[in-house]
């Protein structure tokens, strides 16, 4: 477990400058620990909060053994100034997120087609692993949740978080993490 104070230090008190973006699970920050290790921090949304016991059971189950899944480094579950603070900390990969490669300055078109195709295949293999072996559904798969290491190996983040937010595992959610009703 990592203290809320350390998460504040990693993200420079959750500054806008450190904010990478928003996911259906919460605000995503980039930051650096005191020892120089770079991290991704997710400040989980407040709605649909599980009990402390359920949260701890789920967080301890978020450690997947797959080369294309971003590894959980730690978490926080503290009450600070009468408010519950739940945060997750993941490894930060050097080539950033896939959305920045698609829409940013460093376009993937500079990379050979074979490499781009391998990235797509690796992402598909992760989703297959999650669905078939883990019986888990990734509720927030976006280019912003896929990170690339130095070798352009993609790693999918936020795996298993649907267990925290889904009170009913059969419930379907929209891209904002809100339950949908009826056929869409």
UniProtKB/TrEMBL annotation:
Residues 14-184 form the Protein kinase domain. Coiled coil: none annotated. It comes from the Eukaryota. One of its GO terms (molecular function) is ATP binding. Gene3D superfamilies: Phosphorylase Kinase, domain 1, Transferase(Phosphotransferase) domain 1. PROSITE patterns: PROTEIN_KINASE_DOM. This is Protein kinase domain-containing protein. It comes from Triticum aestivum.
